[in-house]
Amino acid sequence: MVRPRKHSDEELLDAARAVFLEHGPAASTSLIADAVGLSQPALFKRFGTKEQLLIRALMPGPDIAWAQALEAGPDDRPIREQLEEVLLLAMDFFDGAMPCLMTLKAAGIDFPEMMRAMPEPPPLRARRTARDWFQRAMDQGRIRQADADAAALAMIGSIQARAAMSHIFGEARPTADERHSHVRAVAELLWRGLCP
Q: Does the domain at residues 9-57 carry the CATH identifier 2.40.420.20?
């Protein structure tokens, strides 16, 4: 008879993520196992190697809210409002993803090799999704004709760079007001450059 699992994979990955982010990639798997009341052999049985656990715990999943919002639009609301919404979602994503990605880099994970193994690596999906959103908005006559790829990179870069700077220089996570202020400023810049 198979015993039911006490912890879901997601619970274990959440615990592993917290340990790796607090202690770095050299953190012992015994810390993770202890955090969830599981033996190390059981942890390895579920995830294989420590490197596989590290990657699964720290790599963003396929369901990225801001990319999904872009894939669904643009809708009938004002474009500037939609830009703000997507930028806030992107800020949430990059604020959480940046420390994870830096920890993976510190572990010596070969990103180019890992990305080549994926059908559509997350950074390329994000760029394509944003580019397609801007192109649809142009095709609908809701923004002026411009380079959709440049608009996509400007949007992504403005948020990703803020998260990278914050993480690299150890700045405190921006308050809700600071986040909204930054997003409004970026949306305004994009809108002024693209409004019909």
A: no
